[in-house]
Write a structure and sequence with these properties.
alpha+beta
């Protein structure tokens, strides 16, 4: 019994001294540098307002969790190349500078191009804000350019030419079938 107690004490001493000698990694909470909207406009590659239309799955990029969001852009100030823009947000809580965008919500977005993966990235420190809370920032940004699909030569999201081709083909086929049916019916009489 005494021997068992001594062994437990020795193991506990070794574990405690190992923790003291080899501490784990230091963890820092997110700390953002304050900047005004004009500084962010100059700093970031892309600045726009838009609604989240798609929220992707969480994935790992460079040891961090990230999530891709697709925005339907309303107004652009800088770097917008399409009506629908994909932005990669650092996933996680505010303690790790993560940001969560909600589907069907509109935001003022500041994002930078990461040349390693050629995608636009953003995080908590970028200054993104819900559109309802962005009134002061929007005033300071001034009038942006209202974005439409035609600005980028993109087709309207409505029905495509293929749809109309199939529709017109079906109508012609139905009319042709009706004419043949009437002609055969008259021929029998």
């Amino acid at each position: 019994m005494k021997r068992r107690l001594m062994m437990c004490m020795l193991v506990l001493l070794l574990v405690m001294s190992g923790l003291a000698l080899f501490p784990g990694e230091k963890v820092y909470a997110c700390s953002c540098v304050e900047s005004d909207v004009q500084e962010r406009l100059e700093t970031y590659t892309t600045v726009f307002t838009g609604e989240v239309v798609k929220k992707g799955r969480s994935q790992i990029y460079r040891y961090n969790g990230v999530r891709e969001y697709t925005f339907d852009v309303d107004t652009a100030w800088k770097g917008v190349s399409a009506k629908k823009m994909k932005i990669v947000g650092k996933d996680g809580g505010s303690d790790s500078c993560g940001i969560q965008f909600e589907k069907n919500q509109s935001y003022l977005i500041f994002a930078s191009l990461d040349e390693r993966d050629n995608r636009l990235h953003t995080n908590l420190c970028s200054g993104n804000v819900l559109i309802e809370q962005a009134e002061d920032d929007l005033k300071l940004l001034g009038a942006g350019k209202v974005v439409s699909r035609e600005d980028f030569g993109e087709p309207d999201e409505g029905r495509s030419g293929t749809f109309y081709l199939i529709l017109y083909g079906a109508v012609v086929l139905l009319v042709g079938s009706a004419v043949v049916w009437v002609w055969r019916r008259k021929k029998r009489i």
